[in-house]
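User: Design a sequence. Structure:
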């Protein structure tokens, strides 16, 4: 069996969306001929909320090495854990490589800066490495155009570090082809045929855990007579045009006064935006991130689940998979070129409204209103109508199979060059 080191500075019990790809890889890679060893940071150095119940979803058979990092108290020199832990991650990776001689190292982005361990371990030990873009590294986020701002410095440093990382990478993988598209533009020596796009996927056994450990939702009473629609996860800056169209659709649905929209983990911007739009009595926001299994539990008890994307074609929200597995009607508001739109269309899990540059979300308000009405009334959905056969291709196991095939191909290509 081949060996791979998964360098993932954030891993359960860290409660971030980015941890799930590596959790799924750690669980499923052995089925495809790869024995993983996870290299991460000790939870005591995480700034994010810890979710110890999430850690229970990682089997004890998964080998995990945890390192130190610079603390953030009483002095916080830098927040990014991949910077704070870099010396210890490098030392631990060096020990693992010397002791185990793995066939491959896989570097997770985000967090970003630990990716520089790839060229270091290759130059020192000759071990090939993969860069897994779960998010773009050097994306022109709002604020990075303001010279000498924090965002500007992060963007400039990232561009400088990404080039040597890409120079020696044996494979690029990503949650979608758009996640590494800009990297390919900046690194013309890379061959797009040596890239693998595989969404993060979802794990049905996570919902089975909830079935075995039932609990009521805490943010709403699903039996109070209202129709509750849940959106869970971050809201990207370029998704606010979609949010504006959604609120316009709510104003059209005045004949459904009991319709309630719940936004979980969105940071507080939705509440302020809803107040300005006069939606205080219909839109409710829980800005803080809540434990992963609690998120799934709220999806499971909702009358419908909202999956809302941005005006960026590459954006593929991982929450698509969780929404379908919740076995509730899914209302999809996505860019027409997003792979999330393709997934929902194939799954037949509920109404889908798409938009693009020529036909933006603001022109689809009536369609969004109709989609919300159909989904919350429940007349057009049952779990039996979902195309579970097609959706199985997007499971965490299926996505891991794709990445494992990419790992195999990278080793074969390297052997052929040698």
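Assistant: Done.
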């Amino acid at each position: 069996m081949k060996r791979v080191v998964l360098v993932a500075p954030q891993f359960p019990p860290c409660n971030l969306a980015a941890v799930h790809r590596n959790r799924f890889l750690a669980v499923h890679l052995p089925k495809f001929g790869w024995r993983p060893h996870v290299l991460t940071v000790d939870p005591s150095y995480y700034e994010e909320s810890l979710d110890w119940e999430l850690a229970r979803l990682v089997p004890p058979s998964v080998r995990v090495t945890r390192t130190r990092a610079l603390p953030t108290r009483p002095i916080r020199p830098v927040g990014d854990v991949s910077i704070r832990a870099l010396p210890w991650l490098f030392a631990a990776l060096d020990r693992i490589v010397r002791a185990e001689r793995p066939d491959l190292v896989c570097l997770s982005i985000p967090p970003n800066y630990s990716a520089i361990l790839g060229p270091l371990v290759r130059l020192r030990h000759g071990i090939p490495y993969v860069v897994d873009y779960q998010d773009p590294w050097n994306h022109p986020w709002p604020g990075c155009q303001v010279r000498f701002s924090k965002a500007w410095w992060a963007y400039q440093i990232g561009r400088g570090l990404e080039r040597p990382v890409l120079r020696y990478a044996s494979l690029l993988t990503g949650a979608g082809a758009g996640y590494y598209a800009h990297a390919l533009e900046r690194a013309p020596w890379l061959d797009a045929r040596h890239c693998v796009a595989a969404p993060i996927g979802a794990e049905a056994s996570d919902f089975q855990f909830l079935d075995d450990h039932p609990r009521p939702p805490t943010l709403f009473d699903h039996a109070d007579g209202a129709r509750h629609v849940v959106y869970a996860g971050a809201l990207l800056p370029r998704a606010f045009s979609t949010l504006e169209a959604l609120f316009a659709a709510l104003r059209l649905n005045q004949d459904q006064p009991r319709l309630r929209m719940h936004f979980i983990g969105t940071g507080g911007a939705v509440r302020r935006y809803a107040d300005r739009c006069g939606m205080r009595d219909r839109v409710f926001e829980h800005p803080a991130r809540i434990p992963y299994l609690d998120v799934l539990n709220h999806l499971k008890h909702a009358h419908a689940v909202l999956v809302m994307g941005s005006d960026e074609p590459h954006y593929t929200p991982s929450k698509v998979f969780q929404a379908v597995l919740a076995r509730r009607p899914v209302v999809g508001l996505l860019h027409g070129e997003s792979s999330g739109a393709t997934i929902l269309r194939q799954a037949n899990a509920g109404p889908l409204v798409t938009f693009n540059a020529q036909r933006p979300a603001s022109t689809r308000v009536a369609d969004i209103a109709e989609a919300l009405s159909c989904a919350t009334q429940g007349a057009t959905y049952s779990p039996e109508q979902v195309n579970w056969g097609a959706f199985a291709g997007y499971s965490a196991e299926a996505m891991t199979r794709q990445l494992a095939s990419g790992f195999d191909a990278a080793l074969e290509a390297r052997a052929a060059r040698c």
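The mean pLDDT is 91. Residues 396-417 form the longest helix (22 residues).
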